[in-house]
């Protein structure tokens, strides 16, 4: 199957007074049509920056995509101009964030905000846009759509706002939806409803979903394919069942140990000892070595490459390098 999105050797850097932060450091991955790819990792591992890079939203004066390519249906998004990119964003690729409030305009009604992309990207007239907006509100599982259209953001709950954001994001029928921690700010019941709804929308439209999360419960429920990031790099990736049943990288193994068990009150949640390294102090090494119980000499001085460890799985770890293990 052809890839919808194909990322090769993407690097996104931020240039600070103290030095260069390689927030995303030479990562490659693919998203197929209709597939859900989850990117998982602790905060600061580069997952949101990866999403912002795809969307062309790395705009801070000190940050830029420093290398690689982001091909969407064969076109390198990095070579597009501002206007071409704006057309793709919102039409072919859209994104939702953790905080719906931050993406909605507090002084415009939900109706105005929902109709705008329909009129801009799909060139619908005001009446048609309104009709479509009402349908969308029903599709994201909200009752009394007429009432909702007239509301302002502050009149709705967090869960309702996230539904609205999803309605806006899918309004133009994107081929790829990028969701960055879409349920993190919501309580557990609402989380489950939103995930169900995303799955339904996906099934109906055959869109692909790139879901960013630090929550392995969400990954288990949603993913076809999982990418584990650590300190700007991909340290492991694979099909969800394979990766959950046979995690190979010590970091993935640690993450899976720290996964809360449903319906089981745990006195203490396992957390991986140690801290994510300071991005300004990284040297050639496995960036996880300070926290790894299986660390060997080579791990401190040489970076392991991401390699196939089984048919559906890759890991970047010296444990799987024959030459090291077997002398
Ligand atoms: Fe641990 Fe070494 Fe593997 Fe890094 S490369 S995860 S330090 S064993
Ligand atoms: Mg983030």
Automatic annotation (TrEMBL):
Membrane spanning stretches: none
InterPro entries, sorted: AAA+_ATPase, ABC_Ni/Peptide_Import, ABC_transporter-like_ATP-bd, ABC_transporter-like_CS, Oligopep_ABC_C, P-loop_NTPase
GO cellular component, one term: plasma membrane
Residues annotated as domain ABC transporter: 5-256
Keywords recorded for this protein, A-Z: ATP-binding, Cell membrane, Membrane, Nucleotide-binding, Transport
PROSITE patterns: ABC_TRANSPORTER_1 (PS00211), ABC_TRANSPORTER_2 (PS50893)
Alphabetical GO biological process terms: peptide transport
Domain of life per record: Bacteria
Family under the similarity heading: Belongs to the ABC transporter superfamily.
PANTHER family listed in its UniProt record: DIPEPTIDE TRANSPORT ATP-BINDING PROTEIN DPPD, OLIGOPEPTIDE TRANSPORT ATP-BINDING PROTEIN APPD
Protein name: Dipeptide/oligopeptide/nickel ABC transporter ATP-binding protein
Source organism of the structure: Paenibacillus kribbensis
């Amino acid at each position: 199957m052809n890839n919808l999105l194909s990322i090769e050797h993407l690097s996104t850097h931020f240039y600070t007074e103290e030095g260069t932060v390689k927030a995303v450091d030479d990562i490659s991955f693919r998203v197929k049509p209709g597939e859900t790819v989850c990117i998982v990792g602790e905060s600061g591992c580069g997952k949101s920056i990866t999403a912002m890079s795809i969307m062309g939203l790395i705009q801070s004066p000190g940050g830029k995509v420093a290398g690689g390519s982001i091909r969407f249906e064969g076109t390198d998004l990095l070579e597009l101009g501002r206007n071409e990119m704006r057309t793709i964003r919102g039409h072919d690729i859209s994104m939702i964030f953790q905080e719906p409030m931050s993406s909605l305009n507090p002084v415009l009604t939900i109706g105005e905000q929902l109709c705008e992309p329909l009129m801009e990207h799909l060139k619908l007239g005001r009446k048609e846009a309104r009709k479509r907006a009402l349908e969308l509100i029903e599709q994201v599982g909200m009752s009394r759509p007429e009432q909702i259209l007239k509301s302002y953001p502050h009149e709705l709950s967090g869960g309702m706002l996230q539904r609205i954001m999803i309605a806006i994001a899918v309004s133009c029928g994107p081929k790829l939806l990028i969701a960055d921690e879409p349920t993190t700010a919501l309580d557990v019941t609402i989380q489950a409803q939103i995930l169900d709804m995303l799955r339904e929308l996906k099934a109906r439209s055959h869109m692909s979903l790139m879901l960013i999360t630090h929550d392995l419960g969400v990954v288990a429920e949603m993913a076809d394919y999982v990418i584990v990031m650590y300190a700007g790099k991909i340290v492991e990736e694979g099909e969800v069942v394979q990766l959950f049943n046979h995690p190979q990288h010590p970091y993935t193994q640690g993450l899976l140990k720290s996964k809360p068990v449903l319906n089981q009150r745990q006195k203490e949640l396992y957390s991986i000892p140690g801290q994510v390294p300071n991005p300004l102090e990284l040297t050639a090494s496995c960036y996880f070595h300070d926290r790894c119980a299986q660390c060997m000499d080579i791990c401190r001085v040489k970076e392991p490459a991401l390699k196939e460890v089984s048919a559906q799985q890759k890991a970047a770890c010296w444990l799987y390098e024959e030459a090291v293990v077997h002398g």
